[in-house]
Amino acid sequence: MRRFVGIVFGIATQLLFLITVWYLFWFLKEDFSHHAIGSLGIDALLAIQFAVGHSLLLYPGIRTAITRRIPSQFYGSLFCVQTCVGILLTAFCWRSSPVEIWNLSGWGGWLMTAGFYGSWLTLLYSLNLTGLGYQTGLTQWWYWLRKQPLPRRDFQPRSLYCCLRHPVYLSFMGLLWFTPLMTLDRAVLTGIWTAYIFVGSYLKDERLSFYIGKPYRDYQSRVPGYPFIFFGPLGKRKTKVTPVKSLEKTPLQTT
């Protein structure tokens, strides 16, 4: 019975992911402006709930607590479900605003639309570089289904990851900003999720440094988090050098 539930949950998760991508595409493209007019405060709460829930599940302590209660192979699927539910809740409950910040037509509108589609292509390509199946929980679930151990993932940056550390986040930011129509409610979503992207980038760097260690810290010292950021935690990070203490002054410890 537990295996049957695991099979159904894995399949349902992937179907939910595909549905969410479909709704997110149309919501960000034009549907946000077709919702009933409502409170910007509701929109802000909807945008925040996704950011908070998305970050909490990635926290190492929370991840450890969850995997004590469910098989670790299902953590990726659970994370995917939380992400999808947060996005769908935002898309279905959104309230529009008649106030327009910009409404571009002609070449301006075409360029914004091209940037939107280009951001989707770059997002899918970036996810594929790190393993799209790992992002949705499909890979972990597939190995569980076949009763095989999950292969070890080596840290080997390639392609876009040799130029910046967060191409997925940068592509997602493009989905928010590249729009011919920027209304006040869309600006609330764009502002909150852009701020979350930068905070999330820092948290991801810290998380990967925790799990990977020195190889990732060396990677941070070579590759910036984003283009044109030359300082701070999202620029190139200086590797801390731990001074070697003299053996004559430090007593040897044995275990």
TrEMBL record:
The keyword Signal does not apply. The chain crosses the membrane at residues 7-28, 40-62, 74-97, 117-138, 159-178, 184-203. One of its GO terms (cellular component) is membrane. It is a multi-pass membrane protein. It is found in: Membrane. The keyword Membrane applies. InterPro entries: Nurim-like. Keywords: Membrane, Transmembrane, Transmembrane helix. Belongs to the nurim family. This is Uncharacterized protein.
